[in-house]
Amino acid sequence: MTPTKEEEYSQQEAQLDDLYREVILDHYRNPRYRGSLPAPTVSREGYNPLCGDEVTLDVTAKDGVVVEVAFRGSGCSISQSSASMMTEAIMGKTVQQVESLFKGFTAMMQGSEDIDLESLGDLEALAGVRKFPVRVKCATLAWHTLQEALQALEEGKG
Ligand code: ZN
Q: I need a surface site. Which of 10, 47, 109, 142 has the fewest CB within 10 A?
């Protein structure tokens, strides 16, 4: 019998290191900064058609600093926990710091060894997802949505 997508995903998740899995499940069950902002500077939506994951990200920036952030969405545990970890990582950071986090995280997900994992905090837990190339898109969805939001911020489009 061919496993369903859900069965396949839970098998993949079971293969993650225990520590990584715990961090991912903790963010999935207790998402940080989940919700929406009443008047965000920018709001962007992202969609991962491979898995059906959706993430909407609201960001308020003031003087080049992320002062408020919120996300909402639906999808697999990796996509939603990644969004939660990301909001926690970028809150209170300057746009430049956020861009460097984006680069570090993307490099990690592309398999680069030349990165400072310590600087990524909980995000390091997603390194285990590299074993499952299809799921990398789940882990990077929120970040690509963030990148669009940052571009809009830079262009002053809101
Ligand atoms: Zn997914």
A: 10
Q: Ligand 1 centre and the CA of 146: distance in Å?
A: 17
Please give the average per-residue pLDDT across 123-152, as a whole number. 94
Q: 82 is in which domain, residue-wise?
A: 5-155
Are the C-beta atoms of 89 and 69 separated by less than 8 Å?
no
Q: For all residues of the chain together, what is the average pLDDT? A: 92
Helix residue ranges per DSSP H, 47-132: 77-90, 95-109
For residue 93, how far is its CA from the centre of ligand 1 (angstroms)? 27
Angle, helices 5-14 vs 18-29, to 10°: value is 130
38-59 confidence digits (pLDDT tens): 999 999 999 999 999 999 999 9
SS3 48: strand
- The rounded Å distance from CA 127 to ligand 1 centre is 15
User: How many CB atoms sit inside 10 A of residue 136's CB?
Assistant: 18
| Residue 33: other Cβ atoms inside 10 A | 19
Total domain count, the chain: 1
CATH number for position 62 = 3.90.1010.10
